[in-house]
């Protein structure tokens, strides 16, 4: 059976060109970038080039502002704990939103345990943070604002530049988790005007396990991994050279014709959204209709539960995801959908289909063909349907 | 995180005894939509106190659907006493095991069945299940 | 020019078999192991197999005791900060040695800043920690002993089982940095009787950027990366699937005929040591003569400085390393050699040649051919030679 | 972390004017073995107050050796006044640049030369350099 992958918000396939670029860095150019000799220099050169490419993709002024990490989670942990640690004598208040990724939320909760005070801002029914709420939440002791650029579940894109203006006026460090945005939409750290920005390669066709934290020059932050002097002393550990090379190549490819690719994916997305709305009743599109990632489709489908939708789709060869997940012995509805005002019941029936450059018109047609039957099968089994 | 056995997948894909029994002798429901699962069982009881027919409707995860299905198979033709004894363990075993995090799902089906039997027998059951996600304490 | 790589303690070449094993996990089996669908399941299965292989290599009772990390540094940071964080109400005293890798030392220094108290045990002239010193250092409030299994510079292997016995008697958590040992010598977590053990793939022919922390069941430790529920909640972040598969394969290969390979490398090492001692005068072998990693050769060569030795060797096509390094505007002598009682002057002239399974008899001959001339050239230029 | 220019590599591989001058008119030494570097400069001065010959010996890193070498080249034939003016910057530039962390190495050679000139001129120089690694404050 030919399978269709529509879970690109979870992770993407590595671009074969990216893999090609990486290959020599396993078995041939295998030196340690910190080593003095020629093997080391070759690796060092490769890391330098990759750093330039990543800096380019997000329009950083200086490649030195890019620190490679093991992925989005580390970037978020580093940014938030690093600023908290560094500025804790100045204040202990952090502002975030209630729809952040767990890498941000659980890090904030960890800091609450350590005596920090965190404000979780609400969002409207489209998942948007109101900059006025940010302003109102600021206190004397606010040291950090961390709000994501684009949401991983519903794709809503936040007004970060407006929020960063408020941060700047109040002299507060601002971080954005741009893990879902980088590679999908144009991201410019100067337009966004943020101090810190997290990105993760596997969301845009580099391998998993490699990411970066953008740290604007002059930003005060404690390091996260202690040890050797790698990454100008900001992240110890022997560099993941092949991964870094892959991230660099993926960044370069992502930047090429970005707007064109964005338009194409958006068009597929809209076809999928419109098609689903046409074929299936009693459903709700989650997330903002237009301030939305090009590849994100998220519906709540009433009377049925997400995991069983996924199973039916999987059996039909379609890989998708849901905000409903049985994590540790209980089905939990997505904190994002709940924060957007959905009832738990409706939130449990959510389905996310996320596209990448590899998805085609035919993929969309297949989903539009399969999904209605999946829904009606499950509804026929549901004790709360038609009652 | 689900890695279901072939048996679970079979019952999920081809659930047995789905539906309602119009003139059921007993009906039992557990779960709550806000917890992401509701199971409803309908039974017909014959003169020998045996379950002559049983049907279910389930809103829930794949394990919930599969456990509902196997439960109906396991109890069809059994006496009420036998059926009441059906343990969650037995349900899980009949399915070739369930992932750890899904073990609680097997409670639901057996609970719904017991409720249906009690309903037939005229025994009241507490309705605690309707107010919080009971499988969190499961 | 054919180049010889003798810097395997810094990093190793990825085994081509390992790379082959990894390849499908970039572009074909690219699912997120946390995803519900078949793409996810395939990735999950691959991670499970790799975990088994790593557990096997170090004879862990249960694969669940293996947590994948981004490398040795993260494993060390996780172990030390994690235990410190978790047990800080019980006590704030940590015992380590003065010859640990910076990933341990700088983490300990960071904790000192945070109010912890650290004892840095001395070593003898061979780089050995005396278990009696460990015993003497234990206090009421000691919560962690962290001592490396094998030293990265001089290769000395510590009596960890003796030390862990003391730890156990005193009910103190014990961690060992086995980054240099795993894959080179047999390592058995139960024989060593440690609670925590760090390893890093790129030291034994897996790629860089992947490692593991062994956490014995029941060990109390705060998690390090906060976010998703990956690695049974102990390390958030989308799993580096290809890297994990590579680590697993490398672990499997390392375990095969380990003693045979060890014997072969030891024999090459001894030939190199004996040859150098024969050819060059006024030098000193650093590290224990026999309680030593099979691949480690480390000499102090009087009257000349390490970096210039490396440059000359590099020009001759030989990649090596030195304990003398110009890090941030000043030559710093190795803290390991200084702790072993060498004067800074002698420590500056250190040269490390580290072997792997890929080194040959011919490599040894070439070094024995080139090195004496390098040394005499530099000595001829040295104002402190023959004075 | 060294990425040296071709010029540095050339002077490292083929250092000019290595050695001692038996009957030197001036000798200057800076650095300390425990800091990992010592540079010693020997000069001959002719009747026009020009440096007619210069030689060096260096214990130190690659940059230390290369800067010693280029310094001897730069000052040979220069008057003492000209030679004294030789800046660290000029040494680094003549080598096509030095990595940031190695800029301090360029101080050493110029300092040793100035010491040699002062020695010729009979001027005492403080010996602070011998007691701590002076390039740490460089
Ligand atoms: C918005 C967001 N932040 C952070 C992460 C974590 O990234 P990673 O899995 O690379 O650690 C993800 C994806 O998992 C994400 O979507
Ligand atoms: C003993 C020891 N510990 C820790 C590390 C750090 O490992 P990694 O570079 O994988 O972070 C190394 C090597 O760099 C090492 O040799
Ligand atoms: S019913 Fe299956 S997760 Fe609760
Ligand atoms: S002399 Fe070059 S590092 Fe100091």
Structure overview:
By secondary structure, chain A is of the alpha/beta class. Chain A has helices spanning 16-22, 24-27, 38-57, 72-87, 102-113, 131-137, 160-169, 189-192, 241-255, 258-279, 306-315, 335-339, 344-348, 361-381; strands at 4-5, 66-69, 93-97, 117-121, 142-146, 173-177, 196-200, 211-215, 283-285, 296-301, 318-319, 325-326, 331-332, 350-354. In chain A, helix 4 (72-87) packs parallel to helix 5 (102-113), helix 10 runs parallel beside helix 14 (361-381) and helix 11 (306-315) packs across helix 14. Chain A starts with a strand and ends in a 6-residue tail after the last helix. Chain B is α+β, with helices and mostly antiparallel strands. Chain B is 38% helix and 18% strand. Chain B has helices spanning 6-13, 62-75, 80-85, 88-94, 105-121; strands spanning 26-32, 37-45, 51-59. The longest helix of chain B has 17 residues, at 105-121. In chain B, strand 1 and strand 2 (37-45) form a beta hairpin. The model of chain B is unreliable at 134-138 (pLDDT under 50). At the A-D interface, loops of A face loops of D. One pyridoxal-5'-phosphate binds next to helix 4 of chain A. Chains B, D: One of its GO terms (biological process) is iron-sulfur cluster assembly. Chains B, D: It comes from Halanaerobacter jeridensis. Chains B, D: Residues 4-125 form the NIF system FeS cluster assembly NifU N-terminal domain. Chains B, D: GO terms for molecular function: iron ion binding; iron-sulfur cluster binding. Chains B, D: This is Nitrogen fixation NifU-like protein.
Strand content of chain B: 15-25%
Point out poorly predicted stretches of chain B.
134-138
The helix-and-strand class of chain A reads alpha/beta
Helical residue percent band of chain A? 40-55%
User: Helical element count of chain B?
Assistant: 5
| Largest beta sheet: strand ordering of chain B | 1-2-3
Major beta sheet of chain A, specifics?
A: 7 strands, mixed
Helix-strand string of chain A:
EHHHEHEHEHEHEHEEHHEEHEEEHHEH
- Estimated structural class of chain B: alpha+beta
Mean pLDDT of chain B: 88
Count of distinct strands of chain A: 14
CA-based gyration radius of chain B: 14 Å
Ligands and ions found: pyridoxal-5'-phosphate, FE2/S2 (inorganic) cluster
Largest sheet of chain B: 3 strands, antiparallel
Extended strand count of chain B: 3
Integer-rounded radius of gyration of chain A:
21 Å
Task: Give the % helix of chain B.
Answer: 25-40%
Order of helices and strands of chain B: HEEEHHHH
Instruction: Determine the oligomeric state from the structure.
Output: heterotetramer
Please count the helical segments of chain A. Answer: 14
Globally, the shape of chain A reads globular
Protein name (chains B, D): Nitrogen fixation NifU-like protein
GO molecular function (chains B, D): iron ion binding; iron-sulfur cluster binding
Pfam families (chains B, D): NifU_N
Domain NIF system FeS cluster assembly NifU N-terminal (chains B, D): 4-125
């Amino acid at each position: 059976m030919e399978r269709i992958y529509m879970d690109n918000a979870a992770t993407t396939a590595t671009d074969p060109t990216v893999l090609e670029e990486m290959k020599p860095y396993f078995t041939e150019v295998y030196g340690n970038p910190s080593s003095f000799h020629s093997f080391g220099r070759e690796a060092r050169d490769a890391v330098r080039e990759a750093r330039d490419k990543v800096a380019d993709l997000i329009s950083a002024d200086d490649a030195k502002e890019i620190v490679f990490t093991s992925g989005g989670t580390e970037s978020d942990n580093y940014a938030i704990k690093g600023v908290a640690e560094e500025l804790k004598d100045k204040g202990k208040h952090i502002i975030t939103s209630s729809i952040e990724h767990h890498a941000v939320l659980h890090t904030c909760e960890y800091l609450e345990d350590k005596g920090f005070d965190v404000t979780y801002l609400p969002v409207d029914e489209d998942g948007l943070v109101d900059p006025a709420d940010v302003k109102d939440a600021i206190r004397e002791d606010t040291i950090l604002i961390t709000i994501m650029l684009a949401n991983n579940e519903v794709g809503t894109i936040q007004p970060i530049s407006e929020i960063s203006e408020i941060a700047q006026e109040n002299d507060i460090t601002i971080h954005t988790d741009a893990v879902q945005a980088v590679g999908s939409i144009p991201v410019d750290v100067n337009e966004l005007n943020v101090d810190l920005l997290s990105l993760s390669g596997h969301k845009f066709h580099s391998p998993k396990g490699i990411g970066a934290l953008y740290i604007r020059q002059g930003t005060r932050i404690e390091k996260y991994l202690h040890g050797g002097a790698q990454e100008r002393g900001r992240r110890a550990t022997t560099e993941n050279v092949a991964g870094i090379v892959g991230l660099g190549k993926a960044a370069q490819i992502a930047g090429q014709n970005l707007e064109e690719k964005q338009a194409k994916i958006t068009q597929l997305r809209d076809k999928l959204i419109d098609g689903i709305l046409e074929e299936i009743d009693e459903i709700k599109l989650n997330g903002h209709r237009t301030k939305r990632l090009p590849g994100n489709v998220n519906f709540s489908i009433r009377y049925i539960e997400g995991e069983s939708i996924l199973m039916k789709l999987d059996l039909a060869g379609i890989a998708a995801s849901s905000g409903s997940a049985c994590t540790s012995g209980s089905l939990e509805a997505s904190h994002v959908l709940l924060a957007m005002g959905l009832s738990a019941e409706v939130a449990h029936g959510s389905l996310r289909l996320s596209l990448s450059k590899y998805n085609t018109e035919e993929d969309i047609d297949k989903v539009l063909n399969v999904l209605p039957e999946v829904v009606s099968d499950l509804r026929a089994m549901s004790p709360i349907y038609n009652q | 995180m689900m890695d279901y056995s072939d048996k679970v997948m079979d019952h999920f894909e081809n659930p047995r005894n789905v539906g309602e029994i119009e003139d059921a002798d007993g009906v039992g429901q557990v779960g709550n939509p806000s917890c992401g699962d509701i199971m409803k069982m309908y039974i017909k009881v014959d003169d020998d106190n045996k379950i002559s027919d049983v049907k279910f409707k389930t809103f829930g995860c794949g394990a919930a659907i599969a456990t509902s299905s196997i439960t109906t198979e396991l109890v069809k033709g059994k006496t009420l006493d036998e059926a009441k004894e059906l343990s969650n363990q037995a349900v899980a075993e009949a399915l070739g095991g369930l992932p750890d995090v899904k073990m609680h799902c097997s409670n639901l089906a057996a609970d719904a069945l017991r409720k249906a039997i009690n309903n037939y027998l005229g025994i009241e059951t507490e309705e605690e299940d309707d107010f919080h996600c009971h499988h969190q304490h499961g």
